[in-house]
Amino acid sequence: MPENDARLALLQDWLARDLGLRPSRIEPASSDASFRRYFRVFCGERTSIAMDAPPQTEDVRPYLHVTALLEPLGIHVPHIHEADPARGFVLLEDLGSTHYLARLGGGGDAQHLYGDALRALAQIQLRGGAAAGELAPYDRAPLARELALMPEWFLGRHLALEPTAAEREMIAAAFEFLIAEALSQPQVFVHRDYHSRNLMVVGERNPGVLDFQDALRGPIGYDLVSLLKDCYIRWPRERVLEWVSGYRSLLQARGGPVGGGPAQFLRWFDLIGVQRHIKVLGIFARLWYRDGKPGYLRDLPLTLEYVRETCRLYPQLAALCDFIERRVAPELPRASERVARQAAQPA
User: Fold this and answer.
1) 49 and 93 in contact (C-beta within 8 Å)?
2) Segment holding 249, helix H or strand E
3) Dist. CA 121–CA 294, nearest whole Å
4) I need a surface site. Which of 77, 244, 306, 344 has the fewest CB within 10 A?
5) C-alpha 231 chain-centroid distance
6) Is 100-342 in CATH node 3.20.20.140?
7) How open is the CA angle 265-190-35, to the nearest 5 degrees?
8) Share of the chain above pLDDT 70, in %
């Protein structure tokens, strides 16, 4: 860690002066796509996680609020030991360092891991009605704002692609269709990033759930597609469909909203997935061009393939599918090569 890390020095002072802790050492634990950082704090045999969220860029109050909503539902979120919202510091339960993606990449039992994750998600959606009522709605404004990231950052900045007037009109119509479909779904507690990098493998009440501070009240299919059509790991559609069917049965057995039949539930899943993956294309590109974080660019091909795959299945998205096939997909390898050349140049 850099010796002139002013935020780390403030964090160490908070731990010592305010909390009376004398850590034997502090190590970087992880970082994420935001400006938050996490440190593992060693005090004797016990470890905790210290979150550093600079107040000028991050507000920890939503995190504290959503923690208080999820914990009573029995979801294994990191318990908050101490918090100083004004300075942007939180001391949390340590859920370990093995996330789902690492365990799956190492040959972990996907059926068991996803079974746990799906049961936890059902618990959130079935028991979280009152909690969802305390969240802002995932309505037209955020849905449209998220979709707009793709033309700006993915098409314009990353691919250097300028759609024609007719193509812009087509994209706008496709986005309106996706927004209408999202708003037609039953509205539940939505984590908004329920995937393999935010689920920890833990021994008790697996999984440990992270990165939920942006939760909203929104479409029932959103977290399900985040998990099963994960931007970091791909499963055959046949297996995904089995999980979707099993999840619908789980909800149905407990009186949850499942639509008029399996086809409608799958439509909810598929179409909110297109919205999510279009958004993610924009976010991943923005993380490089605005924030200087290139690591997410490697996940663009899979994310785009999810959009292509689903657009082929729905006639209302045929024109968007054609645009992606003709104009977008051929440009992505060239854009990736261009960024690789830029990254290889000496500073």
Assistant:
1) yes
2) helix 237-253
3) 30
4) 344
5) 9
6) no
7) 140
8) 97
The residue type found at 93 is E
| Terminal C-alpha separation, the chain | 22
300 close to 329: Cβ distance less than 8 angstroms? no
User: For 63-89, how does the pLDDT look when each residue is reduced to its tens digit (9 = 90+)?
Assistant: 999 999 999 999 999 999 999 999 999
Is 346 a residue whose pLDDT tops 80?
A: no
Beta-carbon count within 10 A of 44 CB: 8
Give the distance from CA 83 to its chain's centroid.
24
Topology of domain 25-93 in CATH is Phosphorylase Kinase; domain 1 (3.30.200)
Q: What is the mean pLDDT of residues 178-184?
A: 98
pTM for this prediction: 0.94
What's residue 92's pLDDT?
A: 97
Side chain identity at residue 314, one-letter code: Y
**Least confident stretch, 2-11, 238-247, 248-257, 271-280:** 2-11
Tell the residue number behind the tokens 């107040």, with chain if given.
55
CA-CA distance, 53 to 240, in Å (whole number)? 36
Tokens of 34: 């935001």
Spell out a b/e string for 192-201, using b for 16 or more CB atoms within 10 Å of the CB, else e. bbbbbbbbbb
Domain ranges in the chain? 25-93, 100-342
Contacts of 16 (CB under 8 A, 6+ apart): 22
Asked if 221 contacts 184 with a C-beta cutoff of 8 angstroms, the reply is no
Looking only at the bridges linking them, the beta strands covering 187-190 and 37-43 are unpaired
Dihedral of alpha carbons 53, 129, 113, 232, sign: negative
